[in-house]
Amino acid sequence: MSARFSVAILTGSKGRGSNLTSLIHHAQRGEIPADVNLVISPKNGTQAVETARSLNVPVVILPYKSETYAEDLMETLVEHKITLICLAGYMTLLPTLVLDAFPNRVLNIHPALLPKFGGKGMYGSHVHEAVIAAGETESGCTVHFVTEHYDEGAPVLQYPCPVWPDDTPASLAQRVIELEMKAYPAAIKKLHEDRAP
Ligand code: GRF
């Protein structure tokens, strides 16, 4: 049995925290082979940060725009002995320094079935608006490996859901986020099973 992942969740300045909450709960209940040992946020006071603290997960605040962002991020990850990075609402490209140090060990979750509806500018309600405008009858979420480009890494898993004719971006977003909260833990389990013993 190989070691559990030591996970860092990287959030964004909106930091709502649905995926973060789900991952921490799954880890704390022993339902995934992982411990969430760190949350990194560019901003204090977000819902994600408050939730992480209330669940006793250490939080480090690192503003994206800091001149030493890449080095500080790397140092923090090493200090906390992180072996898997999970992006959740992270709103910028991850520095190459970090990507190179964590090959196949950085995941992201996207609220659509990639490669459709991905790339720069495709985040939040923009995604669901585009899905509805395109007349899609199916959407969902994708957990994928992170590369130096937005939303381009190989998928680890995808969960589909229907798009109903009367859906609004908000109703679709709600269906997809509920799916995301199941998909991310499942992807971590899959990654753990797939890796060499
Ligand atoms: C999710 O919809 C995810 O797909 C995207 O950012 C959002 C984060 O939401 N990458 P939350 O902070 O997990 O609620």
What does this structure look like?
Helix 5 crosses helix 6 (169-194). This protein is α/β, with parallel strands linked by helices. Helices cover 36% and strands 21% of the residues. It has one domain: Rossmann fold (3-Layer(aba) Sandwich), CATH 3.40.50.170. The longest helix is centred in the C-terminal third of the chain and has 26 residues, at 169-194. The model has no long low-confidence stretch (mean pLDDT 96). Strand 2, helix 2 and strand 3 form a beta-alpha-beta unit. A seven-stranded mixed β-sheet has the order 3-2-1-4-5-6-7, with helices on one face. 5-O-phosphono-beta-D-ribofuranosylamine is lined by residues 15-20, 48, 88-89, 109-111, 177, 180.
Beta percentage is 15-25%
Q: What is the ordering of alpha helices and beta strands?
A: EHEHEHEHEHEEH
CATH class: Alpha Beta
Radius of gyration: 16 Å
Any guess at the CATH architecture?
Answer: 3-Layer(aba) Sandwich
Number of helices: 6
Can you give the helix content as a percent range?
25-40%
Query: How do the strands line up in the largest sheet?
Result: 3-2-1-4-5-6-7
Mean pLDDT: 96
Parts with pLDDT < 50 across at least 5 consecutive residues: none
Overall tally of domains:
1
Oligomer: single chain
Bound molecules: 5-O-phosphono-beta-D-ribofuranosylamine
Q: Structural class from helices and strands? A: alpha/beta
Characterize the largest beta sheet: strand count, sense, and whether it forms a barrel.
7 strands, mixed
